[in-house]
Each structure stands twice: as C-alpha cells, then as structure tokens.
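Q: Given only this backbone (251 positions), what sequence would you predict?
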C-alpha cells in the first residue's frame, strides 16, 4: 500500500490501529448527483439539512454525512441508515455503538468541509481530528495570527519570507483546528495554549502544549496536499501512525 499519494477507494478500509485513513470527497456535485444521498440520512439529519438557509452548507453536510455513513456502514457490516450518532458536550459526533458488530474494533472519525472539498478521517481506537480550509486571499492573516495564535507562532509566521506567510498561516490554522477537533473540546481549548510548526516547507507537528510536556510525542500530525486553493491537516493521538489517503469515487 502507498501512503503518500491519493488512491481511489475501491474496497473497504484496512482497520488497524497503526493506520489512519483520510478520505477526500468532491463537494462540487450537481443537485441530481447529491440529492439521492438524502435517502441515507436519518429524520433528524434530514431536518438539519432542511434548516440550512443556503445550498452550499446543505450540500456539504448531506454529502459528507452520507459518505461517512457509507464508510462506517461498510466497516461494521450494516446498512448506512442503520447507524446513528450521539454528540459530545461541544458537538463532536460519535457513533452510537448499540446494535453494532462488537467484533469490529472501535472506530473514531472526524469530518471537515470547506469550499469544494470534504475530508473524513478514520482511526482505530485513537482520537483523530481533521481540518480543511479553502484559502481566502483577502484574509488579514497577520492580524488573525496576532489575535488567536500563540505568541511564538505569530512571531514565527512574521519571520517567514512574505511569499510563504499565507501558506504558513493556513498550515498553522489547519493543524491547530485538527488538534482541537481531535480533542473534541471546540474553542473551549485556548488556541494560544499549544503550538504547532509554522513553516509550510517543513513537516507538520505539534510542538508544545502548556503544562503537558509529554503531549506532543503522543501525536502523529500530517499536512495534506489537496491542491492549490486548500490547506488541510490531520492529527491522530498515536505516535508514528501511518496515514493512508483515499479519493471517494464520484457517482
Ligand atoms: C465546530 C468546530 C469543531 C469546527 O468548525 P469548522 O472549522 O467551521 O468546520 P469543519 O468543516 O472543519 O468541521 C465541521 C465538522 O466537525 C465535526 N464537529 C462538530 N463539532 C465538533 C467538535 N466539538 N469537535 C470535533 N469535531 C466536531 C462535525 O462532524 C462537523 O461537520 P458536520 O456538522 O457536517 O457533521 C470548531 O472547532 C469551531 O467552531 N472552530 C472555529 C474555527 C476557528 O475559529 N478556528 C481558529 C483556528 S486558528
């Protein structure tokens, strides 16, 4: 199996604690392509889809949630609409495990969507978080970094050559968001209480967590190459976890 490039996902995922999977999903589908996926949603999920005021977030939610249910359904050997979710205190969805095949190892997952791309991360027995962001060339990134990043991150960003700073900002943003999402704490975890590597030409990593010197070595961090207009990162709470990259087939 190759781990560095995106491969078409033709079969089920190999479920092993040593491997985390990232599935890339195209969200730029025409309505007739994605609307059949609504069939895979529960009544509650359909009601949520209906409540979106705009088509873009509705399409993102329906495609990602239906794809997630297909992936997890295949793993547990059940129909996608037999799956249900519960939510952590900060809104992180988790599988309700009742009625599922207990011989399948416990799967953890996380979802992110931005612009035309959705990503789903799957791991076995280890918290996982993922984030994708579409570049916004108008964003005042140095001001945002000053305000939200740790002081060391903000100063490292400013010291990058100007042509690398936008990528450095999104490298930092996506890694920080992936960590927060893996922990499930939302923004109750202060963005300045931990540091990630900034330089977009260096490997991504968690460098420091306030008051927890052993925390960074517990994590595998990987930035994902998903095209010119997006940045993305995945974090798994398992050292030296391999990351397999898959493209979900377009129907
Ligand atoms: C909700 C949050 C988890 C992510 O929000 P986001 O970046 O706008 O959205 P993403 O597309 O990456 O992720 C949304 C998905 O994360 C999942 N999610 C929701 N709450 C979550 C939580 N507490 N923890 C982990 N995952 C969560 C859901 O699956 C959701 O998708 P769905 O509703 O379609 O199922 C939260 O961290 C947040 O509000 N972040 C604010 C962004 C920000 O200011 N970041 C600064 C970084 S420097």
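A: Predicted residues:
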């Amino acid at each position: 199996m190759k781990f560095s490039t995106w491969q078409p996902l033709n079969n089920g995922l190999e479920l092993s604690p040593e491997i985390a999977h990232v599935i890339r999903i195209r969200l730029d589908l025409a309505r007739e392509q994605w609307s059949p996926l609504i069939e895979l949603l529960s009544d509650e999920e359909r009601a949520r889809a209906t409540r979106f005021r705009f088509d873009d977030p509705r399409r993102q939610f329906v495609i990602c949630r239906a794809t997630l249910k297909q992936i997890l359904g295949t793993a547990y050997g059940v129909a996608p609409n037999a799956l249900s979710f519960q939510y952590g205190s900060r809104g992180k969805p988790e599988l309700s495990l009742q009625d599922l095949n207990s011989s399948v190892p416990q799967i953890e997952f996380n979802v992110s969507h931005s612009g035309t791309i959705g990503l789903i991360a799957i791991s076995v027995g280890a918290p996982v978080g993922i984030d994708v962001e579409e570049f916004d060339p108008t964003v005042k990134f140095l001001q945002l970094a000053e305000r939200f990043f740790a002081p060391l991150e903000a100063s490292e960003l400013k010291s990058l050559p100007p042509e690398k700073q936008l990528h450095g900002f999104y490298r930092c943003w996506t890694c920080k968001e992936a960590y927060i999402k893996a922990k499930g704490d939302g923004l109750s975890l202060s963005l300045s209480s931990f540091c990630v590597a900034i330089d977009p030409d260096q490997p991504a990593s968690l460098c420091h967590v306030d008051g927890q010197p052993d925390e960074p070595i517990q994590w595998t961090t990987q930035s994902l190459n998903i095209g010119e207009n997006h940045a993305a990162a995945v974090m798994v709470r398992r050292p030296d976890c391999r990351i397999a990259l898959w493209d979900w087939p377009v129907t």
